[in-house]
Write a structure and sequence with these properties.
Blueprint (H helix, E strand, L loop, with lengths): L2 H7 L6 H9 L3 E3 L2 E2 L11 E5 L3 E7 L15 E8 L5
Antiparallel strand pairs: 1-2, 1-3, 3-4, 4-5
Helix pairs in contact: 1-2
């Protein structure tokens, strides 16, 4: 499954176009390698996503084409969530 579609289906990022933009800026890595939006995601991959002041690392647990909101949490497991202090 494509990275941008996985992020949308898992509801880590709400819109696929936003997931594509973030990936194309080099802010997402899969197993410590910079990933594009078209990169394939497989079960067991570690995704690291850099949001503004937060870095989220998740492990892919399952892949599904569609899910309901309640089931989307089963697609991944949060490994770490690190907040960085903004410079003022």
């Amino acid at each position: 499954m494509r990275l941008d579609k996985f992020l949308k289906v898992s509801r880590i990022i709400k819109r696929r176009t936003v997931a594509k933009e973030i990936a194309d800026k080099g802010r997402i890595t899969i197993n410590d390698k910079v990933a594009k939006s078209s990169t394939d995601v497989v079960v067991g991959d570690d995704l690291t996503i850099q949001f503004g002041n937060k870095t989220l690392t998740v492990k892919v647990m399952a892949l599904k084409e569609t899910t309901k909101k309640a089931e989307s949490i089963d697609l991944y497991e949060v490994v770490s969530e690190v907040y960085t202090e903004e410079s003022r």
